[in-house]
C-alpha cells in the first residue's frame, strides 16, 4: 500500500468510488449501474429476430 | 508465484468452470426449448464450444500464452488497450455477480428461511480469501475435492441408468432442428463462450506445451458431464417435468434409492454445485483482480479485494430479482453478449499476433 504509484492510485480510487456509489445507490433503492438492462436493450431484439418471441 | 498452477490443476479449474452454473441449469435451459431433443442441443453446444475454443487456443499458442491483458495492450496501445481491458473486466464482473446470484437463488430454494444476503456474503468472503491466497491454492483445493465430487457424480449417473425410460426421448425431432439449434445456442453462451476468460490465466500454467491438450480435454469432460445430466433428466423425468422444475438435476437425485441408507442424496448434488460455483466465482474474482493489477501497473492485487467484493455483492442484488428473471436474461442475451466478448478477444489476439510478427521482422531487418 505504501508503494502506490500514480496509475495505481487512480485505479484504487476509482474502484472505491465505484463500489461505494453502487452500494449507497442500492441502499437508497437506485440502480446506478443497470448493466443487465443495457445488455437486454442491445441483444434482446437480435435474439427475438433470430428465434421469435419467447413462449 | 502464488498464481502458478499445473496443467492438471488447469484441467480441473476449467472443468469446474464449465460445470459451474450449468450443472443444475443446463437441462432447464436446453429442455425449455428443445423438449425431448435437449440432449441433442447439449451435444451441439459442446461440439460448437470446442471449435470456438480450438481457434482461441491456436492464437494463444502463437502468442506463447502471454497474459491476455498484455496482449490487448500490445494490440491497441496504452489508452485504447486500457479501454478494451475495462470492457473485458466489466463482462467478468457482471458474470461474477450473476454466478453469486445463482448461489443464493439455489440456497433460498433449499433453505428458504435464511436471507439470501447471508449466502452472498459467505460466497464473496470465500472468493476474496481464495483470490488472496492465489490460483495455486485454489488449484490444489480444487484438484483434491474434484476427484471426490466426480466420483459421486459418476456414481449418481450409474444409479440413474436403470430409471431411464427410452420412451421419454420420443418422438425424435418432432419440431424439427430449429428448437434443437436454439437449445444448443442457449447452452453455448453460458459455459462455453465464457471460457474465453480463461486466456487470462494460461500464462500461469507451468508447462505451457500441455495447455492445449488438457484444456480441450477439460472442455470435453465438463461437456460430457452436462450432456449426461441432460440425458438423465430427460430420460428419468421426461421433458414435460424438466421444463417445470427450477433445478431438474437437483430433483433428479431424489429418484435415487440404492439402499435404505443411500437415498434422498439430492443435497450431495447441492454441495457439489456450491463447490463448483465457488471455484467459478473465485476464478472470475482472480481474473478481475489480475486485470485491475495490470491496469494499475501494480505489484499485487490485494488492495483491490475489499472494494471489488463490495461492488460484486451490490451488483448481485441489482442484476435480477429472482431465478425466473435470471433464466430469461441468460437464455435471451447471454450467448450474444459472450459471443461479442469472444469476438473482441479473438480480434485482439489477431492484432497482437500481426503486431508481434511485424515487430519481429523489423528487428530482424534492423
How does this structure look, described?
The complex is a heterodimer of chains A (55) and B (366). Helices cover 71% and strands 0% of the residues of chain A. With 55 residues, chain A is mainly alpha-helical. Chain A has one domain (6-51). The model of chain A has no long low-confidence stretch (mean pLDDT 88). With 366 residues, chain B is mainly α. Chain B has a single domain, classed as Amino acid/polyamine transporter I. Chain B has helices spanning 7-34, 38-62, 68-76, 78-110, 116-133, 135-160, 178-193, 211-237, 239-244, 248-252, 266-296, 305-319, 323-365. Chain B is globular and about 75 Å long. The interface between A and B is medium-sized, with 32 and 30 residues. Chain B: Its main location: membrane. Chain B: It is found in: Membrane. Chain B: InterPro entries: Spore_GerAB. Chain B: It is a multi-pass membrane protein.
List keywords for this structure.
heterodimer; A: 55 residues; mainly alpha; B: 366 residues; Amino acid/polyamine transporter I; 13 helices
Write the layout of secondary structure elements.
The complex is a heterodimer of chains A (55) and B (366).
Chain A: H1 6-27, H2 35-51
Chain B: H1 7-34, H2 38-62, H3 68-76, H4 78-110, H5 116-133, H6 135-160, H7 178-193, H8 211-237, H9 239-244, H10 248-252, H11 266-296, H12 305-319, H13 323-365
Helix pairs in contact in B: 1-2, 1-6, 1-7, 1-8, 1-11, 2-7, 2-8, 2-13, 3-4, 3-13, 4-5, 4-11, 4-12, 4-13, 5-11, 5-12, 6-11, 7-13
Amino acid at each position: 500500500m505504501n508503494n502506490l504509484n500514480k496509475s495505481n492510485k487512480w485505479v484504487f480510487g476509482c474502484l472505491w468510488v465505484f463500489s461505494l456509489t453502487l452500494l449507497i445507490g442500492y441502499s437508497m433503492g437506485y440502480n446506478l449501474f443497470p448493466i443487465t438492462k443495457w445488455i437486454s436493450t442491445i441483444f434482446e431484439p437480435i435474439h427475438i429476430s433470430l428465434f421469435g418471441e419467447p413462449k | 508465484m502464488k498464481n502458478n498452477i499445473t496443467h492438471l490443476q488447469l484441467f480441473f479449474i476449467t472443468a469446474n468452470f464449465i460445470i459451474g452454473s450449468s450443472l443444475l441449469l443446463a437441462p432447464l435451459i436446453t429442455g425449455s426449448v428443445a423438449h425431448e431433443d435437449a440432449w441433442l442441443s447439449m451435444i451441439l453446444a459442446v461440439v460448437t464450444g470446442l471449435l470456438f475454443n480450438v481457434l482461441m487456443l491456436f492464437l494463444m499458442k502463437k502468442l506463447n500464452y502471454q497474459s491476455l491483458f498484455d496482449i490487448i495492450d500490445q494490440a491497441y496501445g496504452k489508452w485504447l488497450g486500457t479501454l478494451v481491458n475495462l470492457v473485458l473486466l466489466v463482462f467478468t464482473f457482471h458474470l461474477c455477480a450473476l454466478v453469486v446470484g445463482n448461489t443464493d437463488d439455489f440456497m433460498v430454494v433449499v433453505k428458504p428461511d435464511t436471507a439470501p444476503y447471508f449466502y452472498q456474503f459467505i460466497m464473496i468472503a470465500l472468493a476474496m480469501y481464495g483470490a488472496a491466497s492465489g490460483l495455486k491454492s485454489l488449484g490444489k483445493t480444487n484438484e483434491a475435492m474434484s476427484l471426490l465430487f466426480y466420483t459421486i457424480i459418476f456414481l449418481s449417473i450409474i444409479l440413474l441408468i436403470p430409471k431411464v425410460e427410452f420412451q421419454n426421448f420420443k418422438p425424435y425431432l418432432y419440431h424439427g432442428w430449429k428448437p434443437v439449434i436454439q437449445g444448443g445456442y442457449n447452452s453455448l453462451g453460458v459455459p462455453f463462450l465464457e471460457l474465453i476468460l480463461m486466456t487470462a490465466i494460461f500464462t500461469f500454467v507451468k508447462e505451457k506445451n500441455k495447455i492445449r491438450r488438457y484444456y480441450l480435454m477439460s472442455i470435453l469432460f465438463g461437456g460430457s458431464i452436462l450432456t449426461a445430466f441432460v440425458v438423465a433428466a430427460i430420460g428419468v423425468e421426461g421433458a414435460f417435468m424438466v421444463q417445470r422444475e427450477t433445478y431438474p438435476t437437483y430433483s433428479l437425485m431424489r429418484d435415487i434409492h440404492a439402499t435404505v441408507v443411500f437415498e434422498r442424496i439430492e443435497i450431495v448434488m447441492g454441495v457439489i454445485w456450491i463447490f463448483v460455483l465457488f471455484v467459478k466465482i473465485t476464478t472470475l474474482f482472480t481474473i478481475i483482480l489480475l486485470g485491475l493489477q495490470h491496469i494499475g501497473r501494480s505489484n499485487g492485487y490485494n488492495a483491490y479485494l475489499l472494494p471489488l467484493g463490495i461492488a460484486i455483492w451490490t451488483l448481485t442484488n441489482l442484476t435480477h430479482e429472482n431465478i425466473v428473471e435470471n433464466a430469461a436474461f441468460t437464455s435471451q442475451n447471454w450467448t450474444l453478449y459472450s459471443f461479442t466478448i469472444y469476438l473482441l478477444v479473438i480480434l485482439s489476439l489477431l492484432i497482437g499476433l500481426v503486431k508481434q510478427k511485424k515487430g519481429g521482422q523489423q528487428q530482424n531487418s534492423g
